[in-house]
Amino acid sequence: MKFRLSILLLFLTINGCQVGPRIEEFEQSRRPEGVTTTIKLHHGFAEGGELRGELLEVREHGLLLNARTIQEGGVVERRVVFVAYTAMIDLELDELGLRMLSEGDTKTRRVRHQEKLRLLSRFPQGLSTPLLEQLLAAEGQNSLYVIGSE
Asked: pTM of the predicted model, to two decimals?
């Protein structure tokens, strides 16, 4: 009886390791960039509707994006943007089909969302000042473009 129970436990343990998502199946884990994020903004903020770009970093009061906007003639304008949570109506992670509402969130729920977002960002460990300066220079910027208050 003990032998059968041991075999059953061994079988369940081995099978238990095979269940659930695998890193090989998670496309975002195999590339260096963060997930594409779409942010819907409150009226009265600079963009007035929607902002889309790569999620670079999650900060205490907002998100840092490498935003892309398509201008006339198909020219793509890129810039590094800080978007305060107070300026957001909705947040959608395009490739994952996730939506995270920021309006009406309690502090605890927003912190939970921040941790999930941080893990999906390009710089989950944070973006140092020298690295941010290099990124801004690469995009032809002297400073962050800020939407809301940092």
From this structure: 0.71
